[in-house]
Amino acid sequence: MISGSTGSQRRVQNPRSAVLFENGRIVQHDDRRTRQCFEETDIDDPVLRLHEVLRERFKRHASFMAAVSLAKQGK
């Protein structure tokens, strides 16, 4: 669970989702790196919250960050 959140974490939007991030934000306007099965409509989404926390924690230590989040469900 992400620090500062309450309750249990919600499930991912889609078990096939893949999202690319740069500096804690979803990559936009790049046809080669489009998100799959993920919508940026729910501000309480656990993936978006996690990347916001990472961006805030590391912004003083890194001038650029890139990440990809893939859904994982079960074992």
What does this structure look like?
The longest helix has 13 residues, at 46-58. This protein has one helix at 46-58; strands at residues 18-22, 25-26, 66-70. It has 75 residues and is of the alpha+beta class. The chain has one domain (18-70). The protein is globular, with a radius of gyration of 13 Å.
Helix content: 10-25%
Question: Which structural class best describes the helix and strand composition?
Answer: alpha+beta
Unreliable stretches, pLDDT < 50, 5 or more residues? Answer: none
| Amount of beta strand | 15-25%
Mean pLDDT: 75
Gap between N and C termini = 18 Å
Oligomerization status of the protein chains: single chain
Order of helices and strands: EEHE
Query: What is the CA-based Rg, rounded?
Result: 13 Å
Strand order of the largest sheet: 2-1-3
- Major β-sheet, in short? 3 strands, antiparallel
Give the SSE layout.
Blueprint (H helix, E strand, L loop, with lengths): L17 E5 L2 E2 L19 H13 L7 E5 L5
Antiparallel strand pairs: 1-2, 1-3
